[in-house]
Every structure is written in C-alpha cells, then in structure tokens.
Amino acid sequence: MQLAGKKVVVVGGSSGIGLATAELAKREGAQIIIASRNAERLDAIAEKMNVVAIPADVTDDKSVANLFKSCGPVDHVVVTAAQLRTGPFKSVPMEDVRSTMEGKFWGAWRVARAADIRPGGSLTLVSGFLSIRPRPNSAIVSAANGALESLARALALELAPVRVNAVSPGIIDTPIRAAMPEEARREMLAKTAASLPVGRVGVSEDIARQILSFMTIGFVTGSIVYVDGGALVT
C-alpha cells in the first residue's frame, strides 16, 4: 500500500474528483479526512467509507483555519472544491465573477496557508484545461484556473520541502454535470468523446490516479499535468 500510515485531507471530498481521490487513497492505506460545505452529503459519504468528515467552507477564513486545527499535521492535502459561475464576459454579473474566484482560487489559497503539511508531503490543486484552451463564456473560469496553476508553481518554492503540484482536467463526467438536462448532457459528452484521440471523456478516477501519483512520487513539484484525453493536441 503506497499510502500506509499517511494522513490525507481531501477538501471537496464528498463528490466527483474529490470523492474518487479519497476512495483511491483509502484503498492505498491512507487515513482519510474529507471536508465539504455540504454537511449532510459529507456525513453520508463518511459513514459509507468509514472515514473522518469535517464540514468546511473554503470561502470562509475561520472555517478553513478550524478544519486544519482539527486535522493537526497531515501528509497530503488535495483541493478540489469549487463553486463556478460564469457567462458571457460583457454581461456575467460581477457577483458571479467574484464568487468563482473566491471559491476556486482564494479557497485554495486559504487551504494552502492553513494546512500543516509534514516535510516531504504534498499539496495538490485542481485547475482545468480552460487555463490554456479557453472557450467563449468562460473567461472567469479560465482566469481562475490559470491563477491556480501559477500559484502551484510559486508555492512549490515557498512551501518546500512540501511538494506542490496541480492537475488540469479536461472534460470529466462528474456529478457537477447532472445539473444539465440529461439529453443535452449525453449529447455533449458523446460529441466530446468523438473529438478526442482516446475516444471517451474522462471519469473522476482518471484524475484521482494522477493526484495519487503526485502524493507518491517524491521527485515531482511545481508541475502542472494536463489530463484531458488529448484535447490539447487536437
């Protein structure tokens, strides 16, 4: 077991990529703590997985500080939490723009400041390939992802010997897409799969496996890895 005896905190661990990461790390022997602002869903997942759950809101300084006071020193931290609101650049409300940065970028900043990560441990941020492959109506998400990737590189120096990396997913079929009408969702995913060299869209475990490699390969820091099924070369 690659993570036997290690304590891993997954912020955003109650669904999607965060949940897949928590499940994979637990199978590798880690002691898991999952955090999320949705306390009801968090508790249900924690009971099912037999792991520790701590409610936390990454947009609140005190909430993040209390999370890591409760955790104590840890070996690995993963941040997947994000609340994204976007729209056409000229008309998207500034409230939505600020909310996206607050949840995705400043949330990761708060976690990085508050976490007590043991030397040689790791912090992994999750950005998204819109950072370098933008599309219309998503400028704020592109900007937040780019900022996260720059932050990962900077923190790899400032927090050393803690290792800091970012994984940048392409199109992943996660519960966040459940908000779409089912027919539109299936059509979008099928069209995306057909355009990719791998012939499919990603699933949460694809990203979780990359995150696990960041935890276990001690010679990797300051790296941004794009896990996108080949989207960047098409």
Fold blueprint:
Layout: E1 7-11, H1 16-27, E2 31-36, H2 39-49, E3 52-55, H3 61-71, E4 74-79, H4 94-114, E5 117-126, H5 139-158, E6 163-169, H6 182-195, H7 204-216, E7 224-227
Parallel strand pairs: 1-2, 1-4, 2-3, 4-5, 5-6, 6-7
Helix pairs in contact: 1-7, 4-5
Can you walk me through this structure?
With 234 residues, this protein is α/β, with parallel strands linked by helices. It has one domain (7-174, 203-226): Rossmann fold. 44% of the residues lie in helices and 18% in strands. The protein has helices at 16-27, 39-49, 61-71, 94-114, 139-158, 182-195, 204-216; strands at residues 7-11, 31-36, 52-55, 74-79, 117-126, 163-169, 224-227. Strands 3-2-1-4-5-6-7 form a seven-stranded parallel sheet, sandwiched between helices. α5 (139-158) links the parallel β5 (117-126) and β6. It is globular and about 45 Å long. The mean pLDDT is 93.
**Would you report the number of β strands?**
7
Query: What is the gyration radius calculated from CA atoms?
Result: 17 Å
Give the topology string: H per helix, E per strand.
EHEHEHEHEHEHHE
Major β-sheet, in short?
Answer: 7 strands, parallel
Name given to the CATH homologous superfamily: NAD(P)-binding Rossmann-like Domain
Total discrete domains = 1
CATH architecture: 3-Layer(aba) Sandwich
Counted by DSSP, the helix tally is 7
Features:
single chain; 234 residues; alpha/beta; Rossmann fold; 7-stranded parallel beta sheet; 7 strands
